[in-house]
Design a protein that fits this description.
The chain is mainly alpha-helical. The protein contains 12 helices and no strands. Helix 5 packs across helix 7 and helix 7 runs antiparallel to helix 8.
């Protein structure tokens, strides 16, 4: 059975700069590696099979990766990419607000406990996301222009403006509005 350490070794192992480039950009080879090694974990994780992992900082982080990041890589452009989001937020909320596991992790790892809030279409979660990412302001990687703090604010602005992420409309079978279409036609729109 896969352990949290194996997931964290895969996600954070090796040259961090090279992995960072793969984390947030489509990469078929990276997606295939996730599918081959961990694809069978996403549905059981969504159903609670690995919730016991959340008792430790590393376990909570690994579980958030399986629930929040892996589905986005494995199911790009489909509703399945977001199917575990509610569970990821519940795990992240307990890890960050109740257990304070983020205090035991380095800033780059903390980001992946905070991303479930950034991925939410609820304004309260967006406010929490910005507050958490702002806590990384002393880390130059996250505070740099285009860093994770900037992305947290950009996600929040989209939710404030539209109440949802328009780039998900097609995957979720939602009709878009003319204002959303105009936004999505701009360079760099969507995430």
């Amino acid at each position: 059975m896969t352990a949290p350490a194996e997931i964290l070794g895969f996600w954070f192992g090796g040259d961090l700069a090279a992995w960072q480039a793969r984390w947030f950009r489509p990469d078929p080879a990276f997606d295939a590696a996730i599918r081959d090694r961990f694809g069978a974990l996403t549905v059981p994780a969504r159903e609670g099979a690995f919730d016991a992992w959340a008792a430790t900082p590393e376990g909570a982080l690994a579980l958030c990766l399986v629930l929040d990041q892996f589905p986005r890589n494995l199911h790009r452009g489909t509703a399945a990419a977001f199917a575990s989001d509610a569970h990821a937020r519940a795990v992240a909320r307990a890890a960050v607000l109740r257990d304070r596991h983020d205090l035991a992790l380095p800033p780059t790892a903390c980001c992946f406990l905070y991303l479930p809030f950034e991925h939410s279409e609820a304004m309260a979660d967006q406010d929490l996301s910005v507050a958490l990412f702002e806590g990384l302001r002393d880390d130059p990687v996250h505070a740099a222009p285009g860093g994770s703090i900037d992305y947290a604010w950009r996600h929040r602005a989209v939710i404030r403006r539209f109440g949802r992420f328009p780039h998900r409309n097609a995957a979720l079978g939602r009709a878009g509005t003319p204002e959303e279409a105009a936004y999505l036609a701009q360079p760099g729109a969507g995430f």
